Amino acid sequence: MDEAPVSVLVLDADPRTLSFFAAYLSRYGHLVQTGSSAREGYIAALRDQPEVIIFDPQLPDMPGVEFIRRLRADRRTAATLCIALSTNPGPELTSALMAAGCNEVLSKTPDVFEKLLTLLRPKAETPLSVARQGGLLVVFLSAKGGSGTSSLCANLAQNIAETNRELDVAVMDLVLPIGSIGPIVGYDETFSLAQAAAETPEAISGEYMRQHLPLQESWRFRLLAGVADPESANALDASRIPGLIRAARQAFDLTLIDLGRSLSRISLPIILEADVVALVLSADLSTITLSRKVWDYLQVKGLQHRRVYPVLNRVIGPEGLSKSDAERLLGLQIQATIPYMMGNMTLSNNQHLPVSRHLPNDTAVMMLSQVSRDIVHLARQGRS
Question: What strand order describes the sheet that includes 276-281?
Answer without folding.
Answer: 215-216, 221-224, 169-173, 254-260, 136-142, 276-281, 308-313, 336-338
